[in-house]
Amino acid sequence: MNASVSRPTFLLVPGGHHGPWVWERLQQVLASDGWATRTVSLVSAVENPSAVEPLPGMHDDAKVIKQALEATPGPVIVVAHSYGGVPVTEAIYGASNVVHVVYVAAYMLDVGEGMFQMHGVPVPNSLMGLRPPENPDLNLPAGFYDGDASNPETIAAMARLVPQTVRADFETVTQAGWKTVPNSYVIPNNDVSTVAAVEEDMAKRADAVYRVPGHHAPFYSHPREFAEVLTKIANTADATPAQDG
Q1: Closest by alpha carbon to 81, among 140, 17, 36?
Q2: pLDDT tens digits for 153-192?
Q3: What pLDDT is attached to residue 245?
Q4: 219 Cα distance to chain centroid
Q5: Alpha carbon 15 to its chain's center
Q6: Structural element, H or E, at residue 68
Q7: Closest residue by Cα to residue 119 from 144, 92, 82, 147
Q8: Which residue pairs from 219-222 have beta carbons closer than 8 angstroms and sit at least 24 positions apart in sequence?
Q9: Lowest mean pLDDT among 40-54, 75-89, 102-116, 124-138
Q10: Element (H, E) at 130
Q11: CA count, 13 A, side-chain hemisphere, 23
């Protein structure tokens, strides 16, 4: 990257059930290396279980991300984790300051695709309701971190997870921003989550693919190693945002 161009800011977007807290370890490492970061709270991760319908979905999350992009000066590298890849794909379309997007074990979807549809899950008659973090048919929360449900750190992280709206699980992408923005896909070496079943196929859509140590959230278990990958991406990224078309 040209030294005369300001460093990009990393906009870190969490996956389903998570809040900005999942990025804190990575943020500390990046800050020590001189990188600026910002995060968002996705509204589809519902902290209030008594919230009433209509509950927010993927398109509401995309609006949150767009607002964060508009409020961030200078070039931005968006880093999307897991479900976060869906609203990020929607939000970065036409964003003038996004110079790169990084999908981390994330859903890199095309127009008309939805998250659970990628696993062959039929769309329910109603998109109302909440899905708990622990669902034996879809995900075991320990797989987000190290797969060890007896690890005290993993237990503490699992306790912070919140329900996710069904609407977010199935709403489909209407604009695939990664087609007009330089992009990378990061695959964790030991991902045992549901996403691992489709990661290799989605990574084929990316401009570049990286592999890192760790489980489904490698930036949580291996923040230093993950920061090194982000730094490599940032240092080779063009600081001029891509143009539509």
Answers
A1: 17
A2: 888 888 999 999 999 999 999 999 999 999 999 999 999 8
A3: 39
A4: 11
A5: 5
A6: helix 58-70
A7: 82
A8: 219/22, 219/23, 219/25, 219/26, 219/81, 219/104, 220/22, 220/25, 220/26, 220/144, 220/145, 220/157, 221/145, 221/146
A9: 124-138
A10: strand 130-131
A11: 23
Question: Pseudo-torsion of CA 173, 176, 178, 180, nearest 10°?
Answer: -160
Tokens in use for 136? 């034996």
Residue type at 200 in one-letter notation:
E
Closest by CA to 101, choosing from 196, 34, 4, 12, is 12
Q: Which of 85, 87, 79 is nearest to 56 (CA)?
A: 87
Closest CA to 55 of 173, 168, 133, 160: 168
The letter for the amino acid at 191 is: D
Angstrom distance (rounded) from CA 234 to CA 217: 20
- As a residue count, the chain comes to 245
Residue 127 carries which side chain, given as an amino acid letter? L
Contact 208, 108 (CB under 8 A): no
**Average of per-residue pLDDT values in the chain:** 92
Q: Cα–Cα distance between 192 and 216 in angstroms, integer?
A: 7
pLDDT band at 125 (very low <50, low <70, confident <90, very high): very high
